[in-house]
């Protein structure tokens, strides 16, 4: 029986750098089973490098990374396969193969991990994941160039879900989406977390996403995770970046939006303008 406080990702003493530039120095982070962990920080603070280190695309200078309680650093490709099968990744922008159709893109991990799978079953799984990601069923034969930005993200999500992962990595999934598309993507992420019991590592600059769907938030600054918790818990830390981020005009607008939505649910106030418009577009 899985434990709610079971550690799914554990990063300790992580150090990353490029040439003279040190990106992480003594970074620690724990992600628990079933939570959506939002990862925020100013541009260039190393959010993507952190994700790449966890999934084995970046070899750290030092530190310890465990996923599903398996040590990841210096693990050979063959040894890592059993762990890699258990996660899905949506890279920034979707990272679809432009010469493959949506369905073929979704089948890439299936071909990699189960090369002998019956092609008819592969087609069936791909079709199911396309619909599960909120795309119309006829999106399967389309090429990425025929899709809108939001559809590309959903196609990337369908590919990330191909292997029925327990853990999902999302790198800025709502960047570049219009407010309605971004809110819809958030809802989809939340419903996948709930229905599939997913653990989600979600890099974002989108304050609305943080308020709407994240269970906890990790803040990267000063080459470390300077705080992890809910928004009120982070605000209590009194760090200047945290105060500026959550208490600045965009942060206040997002708070007001969440409060208004709560009031609306309780039927205690009238509708005002959706503030999502004012809180997007912050990516660096
Ligand atoms: N392969 C690389 N070679 C050299 N420097 C790199 C490489 N990858 C990342 N960096 C540097 O590491 C730092 C952190 O990059 P990263 O992409 O993780 O930032 P980020 O927090 O995700 O930023 P953003 O919010 O703008 O996406 C940046 O200064 C970047 O230039």
Automatic annotation (TrEMBL):
Superkingdom classification of source: Bacteria
Molecular functions (GO terms): ATP binding; ATP hydrolysis activity
Skewed-composition ranges (Polar residues): 269-284
Keywords of this entry: ATP-binding, Nucleotide-binding, Transport
First and last residue of the signal peptide: none
Regions crossing the membrane: none
Region of interest (Disordered), ranges: 261-284
InterPro entries noted in UniProt: AAA+_ATPase, ABC_transporter-like_ATP-bd, ABC_transporter-like_CS, P-loop_NTPase
Residues annotated as domain ABC transporter: 9-247
SUPFAM superfamilies: P-loop containing nucleoside triphosphate hydrolases (SSF52540)
Protein name as it appears in the record: ABC transporter ATP-binding protein
Protein species of origin: Sphingomonas aliaeris
